[in-house]
Specification:
This protein has one helix at 3-20, and strands at residues 33-35, 38-42, 51-61, 66-75, 80-90, 95-104, 109-119, 122-131, 137-145, 154-164, 168-178, 181-192. By secondary structure, the protein is mainly beta. Strands 1, 2, 3, 4, 5, 6, 7, 8, 9, 10, 11 and 12 form a 12-stranded antiparallel beta sheet that branches.
Amino acid sequence: MGSMAVKLLLLAVLAAPAAERALPPPNDAEAVLFKADRFEYQGSTTGANARIRLNGHVEVKDSTWTMRAEEAFLDMQERVCHAQGGFELDDGLSVLRGKSGRFDMGRGVGVVDDVRAEYQPWRVWAVRGTASEDRTSRFRSAVFTSCDGNPPDYHFRASRLKIKPKKYMLATNVSFFVGRVPVFWTPVLWKPLDPKRLVRTRFSPS
């Protein structure tokens, strides 16, 4: 058999399985888009242990959220992404940044460890932050302030902090500090975040 015939036969053999393995178009409502400098499959690409490792400038998107990190492991079966290194969760209204975390694309819930976030003019630091599909953020062991100084002139400490962007913030077991000096304690602190509200509060150490 001539070399040209062999090449044609190889092309026919290779082309047939490719056609049989053609994938159906994705469901836009459930599609997860990701990009990275490098990626590799770990385990099966379709089974229960299907997992993708992403490295370098990682970005994972679904219909609502964008997750960014330097390294991430994407569980294709559970639709959960674990990430570390410059980790960010962005829903268009809030950006939670931290050292590591995970994003459950099926439930629309993200968790960020050693988290920091901003809701102008408020800044938040916490041991852990969670973001839900309704764009509500919750923080545990939180420190927050509206002072733009570094370090801030005053701040609050709370066991729990809940923030609905452009709506309100709600904190429990709250202590208010001027510098390092505790000034008062309150079981609950509620603050509107709607910029259209006429009632405003201002905290000043002077």
